[in-house]
Amino acid sequence: MTTTFNTESDLLPVPCMLMRGGTSRGPFFLNSDLPQDRALRDSILLAVMGSPDRRQIDGLGGAHPLTSKAGIVGLSSKPGVDLEFLFAQLQPDNNTVDTTPNCGNMLAAVVPFALERGIIVAQGDTTTVRVLTLNTGMQCDITVQTPNGRMQYGGDARIDGVPGTSAPVTINFLDTAGSVCPALLPTGRALDTIAVQGSNVAPFTIDATLIDNGMPMVLVRAADLNRSGNETVAQLDADTELKGKLEALRLQAGPMMGLGDVSKKNYPKMCLLALPQAAGNIITRCFIPHVCHDAIGVLAAVTVATACVLEGSVAQGLAVVPDGITKIISVEHPTGEFSVELGLDPAHPQSVTRAALLRTARLIMRGEVMIPASAWKGK
Length: 379
Hints:
With 379 residues, the protein is α+β, with helices and mostly antiparallel strands. The protein is built from 7 helices and 17 strands. It folds into 2 domains: 11-168 and 361-376, Diaminopimelate Epimerase, Chain A, domain 1; 192-356, Diaminopimelate Epimerase, Chain A, domain 1. Strand 4 (83-90) and strand 5 form a beta hairpin.
């Protein structure tokens, strides 16, 4: 561990960079700058973010799950892998540090961070790096722009949910099926009819697709819950009846997906599907898991796009799917759309073999984050 500090101070510095990755944001650390003990590491991350506190007023957190994330990066000793990435999801108002799921948005900032910290070097006008996500063992190839041997953030690429344009970050996922669940379809079915019983909702029955192609998700038709799927984020966040039903369904779906008790977990994510309203292929309203997402997560978009090509899923009859073995699925969300390129197995056209997409990233701040000395001591 390379971090040094003045032991006489009651505040301790930890080197970090605040990065935007896709539509998420959070501090990034070298793994060598944090303790290897998990409990102590989590204590430090909570102090960095200012959790638990709804406003996260005493830390770097942005009072929202999308800005309560952290990344830990290091070189890999595994053959064929360049970098290892551990994603941590924190929450504003509780003390959980969840390193079980992936985050494709934060993943977009991994290679820029590694270049900024000098643990890898640019390869030419573009740099492609293989990254292993330690959360689930998923690997991907990430390509960034490095003209003149330096990371370039400015460019013409635009993603919905982020103002302006930036240099593109291309992510090619190598294996995402069953990232947390036992399989792509953990129940073995593209469609499950679930009789939901919850302590705070009247019993109801609903069709759902339980799926994990990078992100464990429960997909339902918005119309089956008497919603259009075109509601605003504010409307859905204020819809206590809907959120109660979704949470009851989530708690029941968790064990069915091999995830056990999910009452204190950030997954599975819940997602309403509907007919596209613009030029996309499907419309979504996702919950992460209790707050409506302003956009949609990277791996959630991959998972929804995969459901669109699966016969019998809840997306069938809603998704407008293009022809061909390579399909571009445009996933509409509250602030725009997210396009996913899927490669299908010619011999098994419902088998997704490849998923690629475009994100952007930016360095926001570099330096040291100050935390209470008690956090480093795990108190």
